[in-house]
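Run log // design_07
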């Protein structure tokens, strides 16, 4: 989501004469688009903001702005910590970035604006400057209404707002016409999309019909409202990829309830069964949090058992991070840091074993790969992804970036496949 939003901010700034640069030394403006979902993300940003102080000393005209979730959450405190910041703009004000920058250029007065957290963004129809050439993100909604007890997102991004379907369709059409092959529709919970009276499955079917689009993905789905209609839209889709990211967060009902996830382990398993029955070659990935307050050994063992049962293709695993302002931060029985780490290790060890087992049947098979580009370490090796979102490495031949090729897999690992184009 942050990548997608940064691309739109770059689009806004281009309109007022800025161009993108990676070079801090010569930049006229440095903008931090921040995340505060976990303490590690936050610490990293505080570190980076400190590091760029030297550029301001070298070039006093340099403008430094902080936008995004941490800007929304910490506001004035960020300036207190780092007075070299020129402006702080909250999440509901992102659409005004260009005028804010222009205003600052003329007045040079430090300011903080974190009002309007649930407001419209108004940069939806600004043409983004996309980082990639093959695969593009298209936000379909902003904010979140779910208030999982551990999560800061609804507090810093405000309530759910859906974009209108015709705006989404035009953006996807334009992007595909510009040569992109793959589109990922984005939202904190795409299943509760409701734009101009359309549901998410209806929108998905409409986007799927766009000429020239080769692959359609979406992220993220909350299990509580993943509907039968979505499953049938996926099963009957033309370009909708056989992959679903369905964060479960935990594998015991006691903790799920404390997290306010509003489903049970049994409901989740039922959902997985339905999805797999309708789309047999689907890959299923998830997010998991260990060390949530009140987690005991029994809960953790239940989660390991749950992982064995579901057999996810892959899981993003996180250590619970206390976020001030969320209910879970005040819960009793916070888990000891060392215990959190040792549980994370056990969880990852089991999931890595499962991921490898899930990949083994692909050995010797031929898969359809969308070519993304050369590997960072070896320009003769190209990378791409299967429809199931599995990473594939192969020897570069005559194919081009953006082509769809058939690759015969001859080596299977936990996170990637190696093979040859046939
Ligand atoms: N809206 C998406 C998730 C957005 S945040 C969804 O509900 O699926 C991405 C992931 O960060 C979450 O799925 C969760 O696993 C993790 N996360 C959120 N808050 C966290 C916290 N306080 N500590 C650790 N992980 C957290
Ligand atoms: Fe956070 Fe839950 Fe909303 Fe996802 S659904 S962003 S985890 S509150």
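design_07 sequence
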């Amino acid at each position: 989501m942050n990548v997608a939003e940064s691309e739109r901010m770059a689009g806004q700034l281009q309109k007022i004469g800025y161009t993108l640069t990676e070079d801090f030394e010569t930049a006229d403006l440095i903008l931090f688009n921040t995340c505060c979902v976990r303490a590690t993300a936050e610490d990293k940003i505080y570190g980076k903001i400190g590091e760029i102080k030297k550029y301001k000393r070298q070039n006093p005209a340099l403008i430094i702005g902080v936008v995004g979730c941490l800007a929304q959450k910490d506001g004035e405190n960020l300036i207190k910590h780092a007075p070299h910041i020129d402006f702080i703009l909250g999440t509901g004000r992102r659409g005004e970035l260009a005028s804010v920058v222009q205003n600052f250029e003329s007045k040079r007065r430090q300011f903080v604006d974190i009002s309007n957290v649930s407001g419209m963004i108004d940069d939806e129809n600004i043409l983004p400057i996309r980082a990639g050439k093959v695969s593009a993100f298209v936000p379909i909604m902003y904010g979140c209404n779910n208030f999982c007890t551990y999560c800061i997102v609804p507090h810093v991004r405000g309530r759910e707002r859906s974009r209108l379907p015709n705006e989404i369709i035009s953006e996807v059409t334009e992007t595909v016409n510009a040569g992109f092959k793959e589109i990922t529709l984005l939202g904190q919970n795409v299943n509760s999309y409701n734009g101009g009276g359309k549901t998410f499955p209806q929108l998905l079917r409409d986007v799927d019909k766009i000429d020239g689009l080769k692959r359609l993905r979406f992220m993220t789905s909350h299990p509580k409202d993943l509907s039968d209609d979505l499953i049938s839209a996926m099963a009957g889709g033309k370009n909708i990829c056989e992959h679903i990211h369905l964060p479960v967060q935990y594998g015991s009902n006691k903790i799920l309830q404390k997290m306010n996830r509003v489903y049970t382990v049994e409901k989740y398993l039922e959902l997985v069964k339905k999805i797999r029955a309708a789309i047999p070659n689907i890959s299923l990935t998830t997010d998991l949090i260990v060390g949530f307050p009140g987690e005991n050994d029994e809960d953790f063992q239940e989660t390991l058992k749950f992982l064995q049962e579901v057999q996810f293709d892959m899981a993003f695993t996180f250590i619970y991070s206390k976020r001030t302002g969320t209910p879970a931060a005040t819960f009793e029985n916070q888990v000891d840091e060392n215990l959190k780490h040792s549980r994370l290790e056990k969880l990852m060890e089991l999931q890595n074993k499962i991921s490898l087992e899930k990949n083994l049947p692909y050995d010797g098979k031929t898969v359809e790969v969308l070519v993304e580009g050369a590997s960072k370490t070896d320009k003769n090796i190209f990378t791409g992804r299967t429809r199931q979102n599995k990473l594939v490495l192969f020897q570069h031949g005559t194919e081009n970036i953006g082509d769809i090729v058939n690759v015969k897999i001859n080596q299977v690992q936990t996170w990637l496949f190696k093979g040859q184009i046939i």
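The chain has a mean pLDDT of 96.
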